[in-house]
Specification:
five-stranded mixed β-barrel; mainly beta; 116 residues; 1 helix; 6 strands; OB fold (Dihydrolipoamide Acetyltransferase, E2P)
Length: 116
Amino acid sequence: MDYNKVFISGEIVREPEIFSTLNNRLILKFNLQVKDKKHFNFFNAILYGELAEKFKKNLKKGDKVFIEGKLRYTKYTTKVGAVKSKIEIIVENMHIIEKGGKINDNKSTAITTASD
């Protein structure tokens, strides 16, 4: 049996982007920086539906977050014909971490959503 689950924490490095699908489902995307000893890793994180709605107003660049989610691999072709791939984190649960490591319960959620 396969298992796709990830727990990760890091800092949001760009202002989150908000989108809406044709059927008005909200999507919130942001870039997460995770320091691993001497290296920095960057991940794209995506929130859908109720979870995106919950965080659209209070999530910003510089926030530290703790994420529970799953990985999604996507392969695509650019306008110039180059084949690219990316791995994204589909967020299922997230908490904003305040300075000092305290989780802010007013800005946290326990909503679990299905992804596209």
